[in-house]
Write a structure and sequence with these properties.
about 300 residues; 6-stranded antiparallel sheet; 8-stranded mixed sheet; alpha/beta; 14 strands
């Protein structure tokens, strides 16, 4: 490791808390040279906005999964370009829809461009304690993320009881019998994983990813100027929530100012954020293009203000 960059890949389904964990790590490792490759499934960079920091070198790769053939070359090139900075650590935040089954193949391809610059230190899968069991039924991607990890990090455990935590750990062991299991609450880590050898928990062999152009969910983007009442915004999201994997964005809320809004499952989180030029939101559809009509109809009924919805 003397001359290599320690590389960590963060996976976990949409809304599991990857960005929150990364913000915490950037604070803990502020004396280290750290780089980030951040992958959003949509072209609207919500998490990139949150992570952006003048002291951190970050590359964003959007509009798909970095493990898919559609973006694999971009990912390989980004790894090669980032190698020149000789970081202590490079963190990869993959899309919540990313299937990392082929990560070793991608690192091998990058080595053809930048040599032996990286040492894979572990794939860390964030497991949303509130929504994971339901998400597991929706997409094979969720089980693949866990199957190919070295550390399963349970998040949001403060929102569930001990029985649920035990059920989650049992399910994790069914999918990955050897990975380390730890917990995190509000981004606080119980395990300083960067000081340990996670690779001893290697279990699944490299395989072809399930990410492809054919399996890529439909993504939509909303642009809006003006203010919206929080109550109306929540009603709008509650109408369409069952048709979406995720919705997230920045909105100017009446009486509350600029706010970051996240929808995961049936949970809507709202917190203050820096001022933006205009309100934007990204929607990842479970039902393909049919979500366009659902979103337009719900917005007209619950909010009733002009907006633009686009691909």
């Amino acid at each position: 490791m003397a001359d290599k960059t320690g590389l960590y890949v963060f996976t976990g389904f949409l809304g599991a808390g990857k960005t929150t964990i990364l913000l915490r790590l950037l604070d803990i490792l502020k004396d280290k040279r750290v780089g980030i490759i951040q992958n959003e499934f949509g072209k609207l960079s919500i998490d990139g906005e949150i992570l952006r920091n003048d002291d951190i070198k970050m590359v964003e790769i959007n509009r798909g999964s970095i493990f898919c053939s559609c973006l694999r070359l971009s990912f390989v090139q980004a790894l090669a370009d980032m190698a020149a900075y000789k970081f202590d650590y490079l963190f990869i935040e993959s899309s919540g829809l990313g299937d990392p089954s082929n990560v070793e193949e991608i690192l091998d391809a990058a080595s053809q461009l930048c040599g032996d610059a990286y040492e894979l230190q572990g794939v860390i899968c964030l497991v949303d304690a509130v929504h994971f069991l339901e998400q597991l039924e929706d997409l094979e991607t969720v089980s693949r993320q866990l199957k190919h990890c070295h550390l399963a990090l349970l998040t949001k455990t403060d929102l569930v009881d001990e029985e649920r935590v035990l059920e989650l750990k049992k399910k994790i062991r069914e999918i990955n019998p050897v990975c380390e299991i730890s917990t995190s609450v509000n981004g606080k880590l119980e395990f300083d994983f960067w000081n340990y050898d996670l690779m001893k928990y290697q279990w699944a062999e490299n395989e072809e990813t399930t990410n492809s152009e054919e399996t890529k969910p439909k993504t939509l983007f909303m642009d809006f100027s003006g203010e919206v009442e929080l109550g109306k915004m929540k009603k709008f999201l509650s109408v369409i929530q069952d048709d979406l994997y995720r919705a997230k964005g920045f909105f100017l809320l009446s009486g509350q100012g600029w706010s970051q809004i996240d929808l995961v499952g049936h949970q809507i989180d709202v917190k203050p954020c820096p001022e933006k030029e205009h309100s934007q939101m990204v929607f990842i559809s479970k039902i393909g293009p049919a979500a366009i009509r659902k979103i337009m109809s719900a917005w007209e009924e619950e909010v009733g203000l002009p907006m633009k919805l686009r691909n």
